Amino acid sequence: MPQSLEQQMYTEPLLHNQEIVDPYFGEFFTLMRRSLVSGGSELGLGMSLFSLAVSIRATNIIEIGRFKGFSTLCLASALKFLDIGWQEPLQHKQRPNIDYAALESAKNRRLYSIDPFPTTEADSLIQEACLTEYVEFINQRSQDIDLEHQADLIFIDGDHSYEGCKQDVFKYVLWNLRPGGYFIIHDYYGWYDNQQRNNSPIKAVADEIIAEGVFQHLLIDTCYPSFVVFRNPNPQIDT
């Protein structure tokens, strides 16, 4: 019986992947569920933030809007998991324009969490999860600071007015997002009127960005507030 392409591939022993994962990650899901609060984000967003940050091997992340720390927990936990690491089979490393040694090397990973209204709940959550080494709290308005760091991922969930959200996108995506990096805008649905029309100002901003056609994008519909993921093109590797 003929074999599939996958069956014909040689599989080398990936010994690192056989090690027991840090027990923290059982605690992580418990903390994540426990941290769902009114006015915060839905579970699907937290899972997606964690997954995307790990998938792109993020080094620097910018978070605009922290509230009680749910998204902060998920993003910082991704950085912790990246430090634990894993091995990919050699067959996965085929792209000639990727420096895999550099991609998989140890990094000094950091989450820059921006919010002018700090909460004790967020501080306590990150301390309880023992993630303080990954998080820098910046308790100021996003428009009042300038970060020099190039980010792999920017999560925008701060000022929910049309003007405020648009300013955050323009400032941080333009100056801080690396080529090939991602940014996420939360709360695509909401602000419904009596005719059940979605009047989310975040949707208005997202739709304008989509119409410009510069960024690749994907709407993740969680059946709750939901979010749009945008990717900044990278001419050097998008081949």
List the helices and strands and how they pair.
Layout: H1 5-8, H2 24-34, H3 43-55, E1 60-64, H4 70-84, H5 100-103, E2 110-114, H6 120-128, E3 135-138, E4 151-156, H7 162-176, E5 177-186, H8 201-212, E6 216-220, E7 227-231
Could you explain the architecture of this structure?
- The chain is α/β, with parallel strands linked by helices.
- It has a domain at 43-83 and 107-231: Vaccinia Virus protein VP39 (Rossmann fold), CATH 3.40.50.
- Helices cover 35% and strands 17% of the residues.
- It has helices at residues 5-8, 24-34, 43-55, 70-84, 100-103, 120-128, 162-176, 201-212; strands at 60-64, 110-114, 135-138, 151-156, 177-186, 216-220, 227-231.
- It has a seven-stranded mixed sheet with strand order 3-2-1-4-5-7-6, sandwiched between helices.
- β4, α7 (162-176) and β5 form a beta-alpha-beta unit.
- The longest helix has 15 residues, at 70-84.
- The chain is globular and about 60 Å long.
- The two termini are 36 Å apart.
- 32% of the residues are buried.
- The model has no long low-confidence stretch (mean pLDDT 93).
